[in-house]
Amino acid sequence: LHDLATAASNAIIATSDNSELPSLQNAGMRLLILLISFFGKSIDPDETPDVNGKNPLLLGRYLSQIIPSIKHACSDSTHVAIENLSAEGGELLFFSGCEGLQMLVNNGFLPDPTILGRTIRHLIPCQDELSTCPFPSDPEERNIALRFKPTSVVENRRCALLYRIGKLWTIAELQLAFAIGNITHDAISELWKELECCEEEVAVNSASIAIDAALIKSNTFLFTDNEETGKDKMNDIIMKGINFADIEDIDESVRAAMIQTCQSLA
Length: 266
Hints:
It is built from 10 helices and 2 strands. By secondary structure, the chain is mainly alpha-helical. Helix 4 runs parallel beside helix 6. The two termini are about 35 Å apart.
């Protein structure tokens, strides 16, 4: 376990000539997620209970490596990937980092409100990332206002939506973690403070992703070929979403992320 945790953590922060290596880093992040999933609740057999009678967890001895690694994956520095063609894959690393952070919280590895607050600060959407608008009466205008807007000419536009999904998903999961008692009021209050300026935007955009996920799932079952156009009228509607003009505009990883997170975002 020591070798696996060390290898995963080192891979997540790996660089070459001061450049990020998102594909390798994401592989390390996925390994770390598996380790937390398999050993997150395992008791350390070599440690005795603390003064409160609580048994130390096996992964506790590796938190000094794990927490900085996940924080790196979730940090805004990963967003530099959209400005660098050689760093393709940073979006998926960011999304995996969000998943890893949630697993740390739900397994009780981030009880300190200060540490949690510093970690989630990077996951609060900027005001220009999200928008809201009155529901348009014209059907042709309904899918424009919330649609993802590129920020760079070299940005991977098919994957960049993963940043928004990852942030909103983590916010929703942290709220749920508080509701079921996995984090304290002091810890969640840091998140609430940060969200005061964009609470409405977070709610609206979370719902929009959940709706798009439902459309994508429906599209899987309702697709029927048409000899003349290749798709029937129903699919012309389903192929459009609130966050995308055409389902082909988003990568398969984005579609999978929407479906994975829709229950939390709804």
